[in-house]
Amino acid sequence: MKDNRKIGIIDSGVGGLTVAKEFRRLLPKENVIYLGDNKNVPYGNKKEEEIYYLTKKMIDFLIQRDVKLIAVACNTISSILDRHFLDYTIPIVSIIKPVTDYVDKKRLKSVGVMATKFTIESKTYEKLLNEKDKSLTVVSESCPTLATIIDRGDYESKEIMETINIHMDNILRKTAVKDIILGCTHYPIVLEKFKKISPNINFINPAYEQTLYVDNIIKKLGISGSETNSTFEIFTTGKTGTYLDMIDSLSMKSADRIYEIKEF
């Protein structure tokens, strides 16, 4: 049985387009609807109560549009999913679990995690990774401002390079890890800058792992799409231009429509 209802993607801003890009590339027959809350970016510096409130509004916005599954392209939101969002009838998929599964499969002995303040302080990555392998060394680095700087859209700014440099120095001083999880979907947008600073590090992009994970879920549930000309719509509380610039920067397929909304 085929199901051509849309897959929803939510994020606090443009970072989730790194997930949308993988969906469009690897799941070309799926219709996708994206909701980015640029007005309230970053979520990673907010309190859990506010993150829950904003997330519930985003999820309900997409459910009203009859999505069949929601991929949470935000590590901060993913870190509270199990506490607040288990009572929905459609799958709501974390971006954290797929990448912890990847680390476990690779049998890594140590791994770094760079993420927002909230994600790091929640210790969600550490808990999930150490549940799978208690001997695994997890080295965490909180990056409170990086997502906000990237979300501005000036990808060539010196501030981005300087901020990445500071956090890479910090994490490598703690332990000489060879693999680092980019635990915020904004970070892969400037992946080349990470690589320029640390060319010998394997940077793990959770967007790819989440897409494979979602593909497995929809196949198991029998709800895969079959659209030859699938659609990609974007809703944002920010500006259309930010998304047009990001789509161009990521060299991904253009959106069919981008809607600016005051709130959701």
From TrEMBL:
NCBIfam families: glut_race. Its EC number is 5.1.1.3. It catalyses: L-glutamate = D-glutamate. Transmembrane segments: none annotated. It holds the Pfam family Asp_Glu_race. The keyword Membrane does not apply. One of its GO terms (biological process) is cell wall organization. Provides the (R)-glutamate required for cell wall biosynthesis. The active site is at 74 (proton donor/acceptor), 184 (proton donor/acceptor). Substrate binds at residues 11-12, 43-44, 75-76, 185-186. GO terms for molecular function: glutamate racemase activity. Keywords: Cell shape, Cell wall biogenesis/degradation, Isomerase, Peptidoglycan synthesis. The keyword Cell wall biogenesis/degradation applies. Belongs to the aspartate/glutamate racemases family. It comes from Tissierella creatinophila DSM 6911. Pathway: Cell wall biogenesis; peptidoglycan biosynthesis. The gene is murI. This is Glutamate racemase. InterPro entries: Asp/Glu/hydantoin_racemase, Asp/Glu_race, Asp/Glu_racemase_AS_2, Glu_race.
